[in-house]
Design goal:
6-stranded antiparallel sheet, 5-stranded antiparallel sheet, 40% helix, 11 strands, globular
Amino acid sequence: MSTNVMPVMLSTRHAADFRASMTDLDLGVARLTAVACSPVLSRRTPTHVRRGDPEHLQLALVTQGALVISQRGNDSMVAGGLVLTDTSRPSDGACTGGQIESVAMRIPRQALALRSDRVDSLLAQSLAADVGLGAILADFLKTLLTRGPRCRPEELRGMGTVALDLATAFLAQQLGDPGQAPAEARAQESQQRIYRFIENNLGDPGLTPQVIADQHNMSLRGLYALFGDQPLTISARIRHSRLERAHTDLASEELSGQPVQTIAARWGFSSATGFSRAFRDAYGVTPTEHRAISLAAPQHAEHTNPARDAHHHELPGPRFSAEDSTTA
């Protein structure tokens, strides 16, 4: 728990026969974590927060047993419902009656297109999961947990955006009419919606800022204005995401039999020369060199290989003018 989720202190009176299991599913924009365990108490103190904070909101569905949760001065008992907690704040939890099972969606704070101060009012509140959007979200999370492990990574990323949209809509509903949200919050929501559209359409070589603007019923000028304060322009964001996907696939042993250009084309690069040049500019090595280095690394050293890490630096974020719609 402390390694994969966040530092926390756990205690139990059932040490002799304690049983627990955890399942973790990477959804790209979020993660899904299912926990089943014997009765246990949890405490996350300010010291734990300082020791490690992933800066996540956790929207948990309690599917068996009951959970008593305390955070930000709120105390609730949750059984069969949903509850939101914040990893950046101390919290206490207890499940004492019997085995508890829950599935939690871990959402990076910056990925949620809602104002933080408004979302904070929902922390440690019992939220209904048997009607309306809550029931739809709960069913979707349970289906993801059951079917997700057999899905391909790109399928999971797509379902992750759906899960995030559902979670955002559900929380917005709990806060009242989302149409009354301040302009800043609405702009952030629009940005996140466009980002998810980009991620879901990276394989389309015809994905351009104009196409994105048309799909979201705005002018090209309005699209550029919406992202005017972001570190990457729309064109740079498309290129950045495509290179990241290709970088990951080229390092995959399962895809080692596929030609480099096949992988490049999968992520929207129509020119082999253009892809190779963009990849080398971003990572300092050619796609073929990156694949060779990655596949030569022993499995146990995958995350600590100095040769690979030496060229895996953050992609640059060049600026583009409003007239520049090139994406690859």
